[in-house]
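sry for the spam today, last one i promise. struct tokens for design, 126 residues
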């Protein structure tokens, strides 16, 4: 390593070292917009979704967004010359150099009884 070059940044954990996610992911590449309650808007893509969330891929680290921030995630899909959009209240679960992990569970739902039946059971994938 040359003394003129900065050291390599630390490497993050490998996917197999991360804790498992709660829901099965479904391949679904589409446009995703996160409108933060604080007023910022972050646009990008997602490559997969689950019933409980999605990861918003951006071309840079989203500035000013913190884990726990709330907002609305809007997925937009074009099919047969028509545009379909779905919006979900969400909470920022992760902030990385490449985007945002969004949890579709609203803060009110997170405080609800975890023993309640999940109304999403049996829904068809998007």
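last one done:
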């Amino acid at each position: 390593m040359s003394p003129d070059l900065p050291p390599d940044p630390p490497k993050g954990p490998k996917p197999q070292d991360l804790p498992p996610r709660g829901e099965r992911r479904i391949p679904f590449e589409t446009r995703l917009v996160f409108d933060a309650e604080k007023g910022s808007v972050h646009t990008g893509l997602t490559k997969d979704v689950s019933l409980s969330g999605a990861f918003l891929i951006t071309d840079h680290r989203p500035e000013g967004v913190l884990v726990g921030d709330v907002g609305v995630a809007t997925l937009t899909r074009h099919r047969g010359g028509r545009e379909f959009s779905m919006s979900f209240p969400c909470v920022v679960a992760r902030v990385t150099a490449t985007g945002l992990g969004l949890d579709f569970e609203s803060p009110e739902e997170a405080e609800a009884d975890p023993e309640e039946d999940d109304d999403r059971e049996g829904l068809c994938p998007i």
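Confidence is low (pLDDT under 50) at residues 8-19, 117-126. ok im logging off now
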